[in-house]
Amino acid sequence: xxxxxxxxxxxxxxxxxxxxxxxxxxxxxxxxxxxxxxxxxxxxxxxxxxxxxxxxxxxxxxxxxxxxxxxxxxxxxxxxxxxxxxxxxxxxxxxxxxxxxxxxxxxxxxxxxxxxxxxxxxxxxxxxxxxxxxxxxxxxxxxxxxxxxxxxxxxxxxxxxxxxxxxxxxxxxxxxxxxxxxxxxxxxxxxxxxxxxxxxxxxxxxxxxxxxxxxxxxxxxxxxxxxxxxxxxxxxxxxxxxxxxxxxxxxxxxxxxxxxxxxxxxxxxxxxxxxxxxxxxxxxxxxxxxxxxxxxxxxxxxxxxxxxxxxxxxxxxxxxxxxxxxxxxxxxxxxxxxxxxxxxxxxxxxxxxxxxxxxxxxxxxxxxxxxxxxxxxxxxxxxxxxxxxxxxxxxxxxxxxxxxxxxxxxxxxxxxxxxxxxxxxxxxxxxxxxxxxxxxxxxxxxxxxxxxxxxxxxxxxxxxxxxxxxxxxxxxxxxxxxxxxxxxxxxxxxxxxxxxxxxxxxxxxxxxxxxxxxxxxxxxxxxxxxxxxxxxxxxxxxxxxxxxxxxxxxxxxxxxxxxxxxx
Length: 567
Prior knowledge:
Largest sheet: 18 strands, antiparallel, barrel
Oligomer: single chain
Radius of gyration: 58 Å
CATH architecture of the largest domain: Beta Barrel
CATH class of the largest domain: Mainly Beta
Mean pLDDT: 80
Structural class: mainly beta
């Protein structure tokens, strides 16, 4: 059986109770300080004792009544949990006062209420204000002003908010595929245009036109008669397919034969022409053209041979070569040209022939042009031309030396508005002085034009104007100046139907004479295509020739209908 300790006296019991209370208070204070320090170290690192004391005693600076605290400063209302924690002489303070007063915060940053352990720790530390002030350290920043000390839940973005691939709608993995044999159709601009043939780097197009002409004057001459003619025309056109340069070639042959009426009439004419343009280095370009035609001389020729069976054949050869240079907005070009006319002998109705060698000549000219680009579409220019006309015979059958020096000066404008309007027009003055002083020099107004205008889509209007000096073999006469102009309009009504109309006039003025001649003509035509290979075409034409020279007037009307084939 265990022995019980002896009962102690009342004084020793009180002493033991005080020692136990002191030990318990010391243990509670140590535990509270260790917990506070550990908690604060997790948030803001290691703290000193003065920092802890400042936090615990910060609310005792001053209360609402402004009474000074024990430390000599006014303290806010603080009520400890235990009534014995206050001195008997100290007034009771507001029970609702917090040990840790804070500014207004939101629900996520509000500090937790004080615990009884903290209240007891604050009560015991009031006895040592100086040590608590040293341990508190510097004042900590307000929780609302420091993001790192904020407490609460912060809303975060979704994990896939910035993932564009995750938010994109998936494409179908099995799209419908068109059939392999399904053809791809492309609408053609002109489904009735010829396909052509590929020859090297050229696209070649051929056309055959076969039809019949009924005319009131089959020869287009003063003594012509009504008749029906068969007409066959073959044309060939070739266009280059080059990237930098360009070239074109054209050829035609036309044959007319009388079916009824003037049985002795037949006519053959043809010609070729070619042109090219090349872009050279250093803003330079070169261009050239060549043309050759052979045809019977027209009854409206200025030279009236008289009683002949048929008009002599006229061969015309022309060629030119030009070099151009662009210097800024200035444009310069130098052009050399040759024109030659050769006449065959005329068959007389009385038998025999009449030589026409005294009419053969060659005209050589050189022209210098200077222009300025006002805009890319408008280039005004001036051009000076010098040349000489050489006759094969130094003295003709009448005893005149008809070779002459030529001088011309013109001014005009080049236009290039694309498909809307392009070409050039010019006006000036020319003069040819003969070697034979007995002949009056030929001089007059110089007018030239070559314009293509498209007022609406599918409609094209062309204007061609020229001035030509014509020679003669008549004694004491110098020759004549002929002005010619024509206007042609083409309208594509449908893809397979084209309508056209043209009108022309020519005025011949004889030098040193009051004689003159006027030619007027008008024509309408239409072409209807069955397909891109075959179609029918027709035209209605009227021509009138009036002259002050007796026995030269005539007029003629004709109708043509034919079949047109192209490839």
